[in-house]
Amino acid sequence: MILSFPMTVIIVLFTRGVSRGHPISSLWQILAAGLIMGFFMFLLSWMEISVIDDRIEIVMGPGLYRKKLDIRNIQELTETKIPWYSTGIKKIHNGWLVGVDSSPAIRIDFTDGKCLILGTEDMEKLMAVIRERMESLA
User: Fold this and answer.
1) What pLDDT is stored for residue 36 in this prediction?
2) What is the dihedral of CA 54, 122, 104, 46, to 10 degrees?
3) At what angle do helices 4-19 and 27-43 cross, to 10 degrees?
4) pLDDT 10s digits, 63-90
5) Of 43, 47, 70, 110, which is most buried by a Cβ count within 10 Å?
6) Residue 111: which pLDDT band, with cuts at 50, 70 and 90?
7) Confidence (pLDDT) at 110
8) What DSSP designation does 70 have?
9) How many of the other CB atoms lie within 10 Å of CB of 127?
10) Which residue ranges make up each domain of the chain?
């Protein structure tokens, strides 16, 4: 979703150049779009997940995306996998997908019917910690 912006810029610059009879976009336009895309890729290239007291904290990159989840609102945890074409921050049916790469993931279903698919390299450990906190808070 975040990388859609640089791709849109590339498409607009390309079509603008073609419609005016210019060669297929100039080098500076391609370079500018590439720099924008590289900047966003850098900002979202790592993710930190922390379980602190009664909440899960998710931080992507240097803090561009932050989310805090109350463990008491979790209804169910299930194992899943993020496909190679579905990384980043994306709106999905009934919730969000947050992941840096195609990896094992945890589907968190909340009591309000929403869900979050959270990509992580150490799925078993994170699920164990969350389940332990869920039991201690129940």
Assistant:
1) 81
2) 80
3) 170
4) 878 999 999 999 999 999 888 777 778 8
5) 47
6) very high
7) 95
8) E
9) 17
10) 4-43, 47-137
Pick among 2.60.40, 3.90.930, 3.40.50, 2.30.29: CATH of 47-137:
2.30.29
List the structure tokens of 18.
Answer: 């073609």
CA pair distance 132, 123, nearest whole angstrom: 14
Which amino acid would we find at residue 96? Answer: W
pLDDT tens by residue, 41-52: 787 788 899 999
Tokens for 45? 């290239």
Distance between CA atoms of residues 83 and 130, nearest Å = 23
Stated pTM of the model: 0.72
Nearest CA among 118, 89, 83 for reference residue 102: 83
**CA–CA separation, 23 vs 19, rounded Å?**
10
Sign of the torsion formed by the C-alpha atoms of 71, 75, 79 and 82:
negative
